Amino acid sequence: QITLRESGPALVKPTQTLTLTCSFSGFFLTTTGAGVAWLRQPPGKALQWLATIHWDDDKGFNPSLANRLTITKDTAKNQVVLTMTNMDPVDTGTYFCVHAWSYYYENSGYHTWFDPWGQGTLVTVSS
Amino acid sequence: EIVLTQSPGTLSLSPGQSATLSCRASQRVTSFFLAWYQQKPGQAPRLLISGASSRAAGIPDRFSGSGSGTDFTLTISRLEPEDFAVYYCQQYAQSVTFGGGTKVE
Hints:
The structure holds two protein chains of two kinds.
Chain A: E1 3-7, E2 11-12, E3 18-25, E4 35-41, E5 48-54, E6 59-61, E7 69-74, E8 79-84, E9 93-105, E10 109-117, E11 121-125
Parallel strand pairs in A: 2-11
Antiparallel strand pairs in A: 1-3, 3-8, 4-5, 4-9, 5-6, 7-8, 9-10, 9-11
Chain B: E1 4-7, E2 10-11, E3 19-29, E4 34-39, E5 46-50, E6 54-55, E7 63-76, E8 86-91, E9 97-98, E10 102-104
Parallel strand pairs in B: 2-10
Antiparallel strand pairs in B: 1-3, 3-7, 4-5, 4-8, 5-6, 8-9, 8-10
């Protein structure tokens, strides 16, 4: 059974850097095809994909946020860490860590959908 | 970027009725790279459908997905009380984007 759990600060100040950790079990990020993604959801709004890291350390980022995001994996600890710089109140929302399923094609890279999801962690950006 | 537009925004139905949810893409979604998720209040989303029409494990057969190209549909036949939720479509043909959601109330 795959499970994922997010951890990190509930409150960050504007301009600070957010660091979130995803701890997972039930799969290994060393297994061919495995991946972990981060997504978020502002209160009352739609889902937004942030970033994905794959078993081979290939990474994908939302183009609109790529310059603020870093994603890394620690395979020994079964953890994935997301950092987002220069936080703003509009970044307030629930951040989800998710297991990523993918097809890979040489000419177009990874094609990824998400299941299962962690419960999410609410991050508020406020001074 | 592929923009997904879901309609209607809200669908008001009764248990036992059928629901038809639309997801329209601004560009062709190749290889049926489209998924559907269900989200209930206070919960994380749950995968219903991937590959436009393949039900995820444990999803009842009253949920079905169809479509290709730029037009996709999620159909829920015989709505159960637990099906009243928000539904999102997601494309993974080019990067990843989500629709704005349809609330079934």
